[in-house]
Amino acid sequence: MKGGKTLIVIGIIVVIFGFIFHLQGQSIVGPESSFMYSNPDWITYGIQIVEVGIIFCIAGIVILKRN
Description:
By secondary structure, the protein is mainly α. The chain has one domain. Helix content is 76%, strand content 0%. It is built from two helices and no strands. Helix 1 runs antiparallel to helix 2. The longest helix has 27 residues, at 40-66. The model has no long low-confidence stretch (mean pLDDT 94).
């Protein structure tokens, strides 16, 4: 049970970071001196990181439902 909750928390944190990275790539958030700021690569990276976070959350929910 504890593993499922841990995966969900980690997944939420990863989703938040991915969303921030995505916004930095779009020049919405962050300092202009950041290497991520206004960098189209980080728009894609942010989306991919969010997807990984969602997978972690789903895995955590599945583990909780099985127990």
